[in-house]
# Entry
Amino acid sequence: MSLKLIKTTPAKCSLDLGDGSERAFYVNQDYIFQKLHKAHRGVSLMYTYYPNDKTWPVRASVANKNAKSAWDYPYEDYFPYRGGREHKMDDEPFNFMKEIRMHGQEVVLTLTIDPFLKEEDIILIAKDLRNYGRLLLRINHECTGDWFCYTKRASYEQIASFFVMCCDVFHEYVPNIKLILCAGMYLKETGKLEMEDIFLEAHKKADIWSGDQYLSLHWGWPHDVATKETSNHACSNVDEVYEKAKNTYLRLCKITGQNKPMVLSELNGDADVTGAFEQSYMMKHFMTRVQKEKHPWLSAFTLYQFRDDGRLGLEVTDPNNSEIGIEQPILGMYMEEMHKPCFCTGYQTLSEAQLPVKLRWGAHDDAEAVEMEIKLKKQPVYFELNFPKEIVPLAMIIEFDTWSFYKAPGVSFIDLMPYFFKNKIKRGAVKKLRFFCPPQDGLNHPVSDTDKNEDLLYNCYTTLTALPSIRLEYEPVSLAKKYRD
# Structure
């Protein structure tokens, strides 16, 4: 069978997925794969770090049970980041970060940080994160607002200076990590960004520009209910949101003289405001606008989030059991849209391939794979992969057409038939089957904390010595026809 060595290239607009925040627990990646049948470019995690506070590291809502609103805490109600001074690398979020990378995705980490921490504290965080490849780090997001705790401790000038300092530290110590500035967006009334003068140097230092934009949102959750009589919610015109975000990017290019990736780090509609069906329609309209854009400007957006305790997710948390999600209409819509070409990685053929082959993993959209063609006579009844013992220990991502399947270390069998449960095949169809080797333990492995071998900061390598045997059959083993007559 002919093999090719290929590499992925970025999607026209990449998709990231929020997984856990103050509104919900983290959901494991195996469950998400089974629901969506596709890997994301990245998975967004949200944590907070205020190590000088008296109640730290107790979560804010636990330490302050009498709070009257979601914003009535001394520090944000995300789960505490236990690295830094504690250096608890076997605690949150590090185990989740490893799982995300083993599943062929990159980490998009949001940290709200006490803006009066010193450079030595930021250096500790940088060293914590250096082995997680091309991690994207968003520090003190929505920083032109007044709702997060750090905005109540510091002036906007201090917040901007703190972000610049963080950029300087990370660029020096961990160049593989890119920093996201999520600040004010375009104001139609002024033709400028909110606080653009105060945050100009921060915009110039950032690696990626960002904004958070909800199509609808009930911001009083979970302490109140959105009704027609309350003012704790908002709903926006989808096209106006799209144009606002686009104008933000254009304005940033103009005032900085730079051209950087623009992302929307939190995007969704809130069914608390619109109901579940309209939530789905609104997001589909936005994704359709992205696909029709003649001059692409949006590098990626993060769907916030997979499972939510309110109504801001693809699933909502079952009130009887927080480990169970209740699928919403938006999930099916999103799954269908994310498999469309605009949101999928591209592929570049590098050469013919022979085993053994050394595969490089840089990132979801910069990774090498072995590819083969599968010719299908008709709809199969069995399509199975059986892995020989020499590659059973590997973590692998298997792509068939646009679907992603994960093989965990130690697993020797993967069933690809779920693809055919959802997709009807034309006689004689030819589909691509690809095998990737993401970081086997979720980490890159430079020699030491001071290792300046940049290749190993950005890439990891796995030698693939064999491929699975394929069972592809078009007839059942046995069939009792009498009951079908």
Q: What stands out?
A: The first strand starts at residue 4 and ends at 9.
